[in-house]
Amino acid sequence: MSLEAQARAALKRGDLPAAAVAAQALVLAAPDQAAGFFVLGIVAAEAGQIAKAVPLIEAALERGPQAEHLAQLAKLLILLRRDGEAADATDKAIALAPDDPLTLDTLGCVLARLGRHEESIAPFTAAVAGEPGNLEYRYNLAAANGFTGRVDEARTHYETILAKDPGNARAHYALAILSRQTSLANHVPRLQAAVAAADKPEDALRLRYALAKELEDLGDPAAFDQLWTANVAHKRTIGYSFALDAAIFDAIETLFADDRNALAAVPGNPDPAPIFVVGMPRTGTTLVDRILSSHRDVGSAGELQAMPLAVKQLAGTQSRAVIDPATIAASGPLDPAAIGDAYLARAVHHRPAGTSRFTDKLPANFLYIGHIARALPNARIVCLRRNPMDTVWSNYKNLFASQSAYYAYSYDLMDTACYYARFDGLMQLWERLFPGRVLQLSYEALVTDQQRQTRELLEHCGLNWDEACLSFHENAAAVATPSAAQVRRPLNADAIGKWRTHEAALRPVADWLEAQGFTID
User: Which structural domain, as residue segments, surrounds residue 350?
Assistant: First the structure.
């Protein structure tokens, strides 16, 4: 067996030390060949040493471009948030017409991370064709089909996965949120059996959320019990305390309490292209993003991490968290133009071609409105507002990325209510500091008076009227959020007042919010 074959065989069985020894021997024996450097790079990546892996794979590419090597480099660059370089490596790999399933699947995953969901369909399809029994490849293809509106194809692939792996929690959950369930077509009995059989906490979490979603679709109040059980367990697992988020709000309010001391008093980047759609999650941000991106002059860039990463990068703090009190405090003296430049440099790789404006709909950007207002003085900002109790309930029942620090509050009802209260207080601060910069758009008003609210929205964003914005549900662009099914239907009031289905269980939260001065409809 050749040294390269030995190295790859060791990699395949997960023996990293043996793979490294064989790869090092290969580098010494054939320093002009790429294989040894590539395997060493993969060994480093598998060991979690991403920064060390990149130059090794780059060294392999210096010895001749190969699609496999470019695809793995792109994957690592995405993990390092070097999206532009990842996109370049991906395009070069695709141009080499790879045919091995792993490379094709890797390229599809990178394209998806770049928001290029429509383009990801082809490599994912080819990967599944090349290795039909690989359920990971098939799951990725199913997800891409769901994001791009190919609902029937997505459903077929998920069912194929479940036929081979009946306990696959990701597939169960994806099927549950793919469309609205009905009394004639649902998976409740199958989900109940899967929940009973689940032996891993992460699987139980997804399965209970899937079951709760389907029960909620059917109007069954038992949905609450499933969520309660799942969320109590997950909050305990992640060890979350609301004090973590409270400290972030405190730091922002401290920094901007005296506006004169917040960010350097110099002009920001004047580019008018960005439109930020912010707010608590599950309050209509995806809906407004679809309305705006239906406009002839606007494209959706999706939920970008560009602003949080720009601030983190320039603040220079060493913590692993993207946002924390230390990073917020360190951002105070930053040059607003530098933040704006860094943001736009990151966003450019996600902007759809052919439009002069783009939306960034990361809901958590409401935390950065002070930075945005200074760094991008001509950017427009829209904040969605929704009935407090519908907001709390919608956050509580939605399974966000389970390891995301942004949404760790959502596994507890009172934590979510407290987060809402702090969100509301921060929005009041932004209005005092930057009057008129943020359009606070009521979800309920948009649903009940679509045309008038859409006109006000477009006017605030500096856009001419476009009739297509009223037919947002016909927008063919990909949607990679839990709202994908909803925004492909015409506007309706189905979600208004949904919390009352569980009013008895939610009454303590409603009472607390009312005591804080909020109106509960």
Answer: 242-515
